[in-house]
Design brief:
Elements (H helix, E strand, L loop, with lengths): L1 H5 L7 H6 L6 E5 L2 E5 L4 H20 L3 E4 L3 E2 L4 E2 L4 E4 L9 E2 L3 E8 L4 H14 L4 E6 L5 E7 L2 E8 L5 E3 L5 E3 L7
């Protein structure tokens, strides 16, 4: 991975990005530039795993899928790797999940990438037409649920530990933030 990155000149194409294959770092493509972050922390992964476990049964009942850390093509040349997505039925052999198949996208905010999740990705996901965006604060477990209105998101709810987030779309599920924390 390192040699490929340092020997590359100019903007990255989607084909070059996908040719990198699986890496130890999280490598995302934003309009010709690579965004590289270290592997998530154990706390981050615990929250992601617990959230996926809570959503697994309701998602299956709705005929959907819940996936962690997959490539989502928002448009050609723009491929983030969200922490978790709920999708319509998809082809599991494709390298990317298309934004049009994503019903909800979730990011778990890390201190090192908070602005990326709260500004850049939020804008990109809304522009791509993803209806629901869930942000989870790693330190407190507080969950911010957003719904797309036009080309941007509006906050629907803020759920703190001790409270209950009740989803009615894209699936029916109840989530207690404190149950996601280690």
């Amino acid at each position: 991975m390192t040699a490929a990155v340092f020997n590359h000149e100019g903007p990255w194409t989607e084909e070059e990005y996908l040719a990198l294959g699986e890496t130890q770092q999280r490598v995302e493509l934003f309009d010709g530039s690579l965004h590289v972050t270290p592997a998530p922390t154990p706390r981050h992964q615990n929250i992601s795993g617990e959230l996926r476990a809570v959503l697994r049964a309701p998602v299956r009942e709705a005929g959907l899928h819940v996936l962690e850390a997959v490539n989502v093509r928002l448009r050609p040349g723009r491929i983030p790797i969200p922490d978790l997505v709920i999708t319509s039925p998809i082809d599991f052999d494709e390298l990317n999940v298309e934004a049009s198949d994503v019903r909800l996208v979730c990011e778990i905010i890390s201190p090192s990438n908070a602005s990326t999740d709260k500004v850049l990705k939020m804008h990109y996901y809304a522009t791509a037409g993803i209806e629901w965006y869930l942000l989870v604060e790693q330190d407190s477990g507080t969950m911010h649920l957003y719904r797309r209105r036009g080309g941007h998101y509006t906050e629907q709810s803020v759920t703190r530990p001790g409270e209950l987030l009740v989803l009615t779309e894209p699936v029916k599920a109840s989530i207690r933030p404190e149950e996601l924390l280690p």
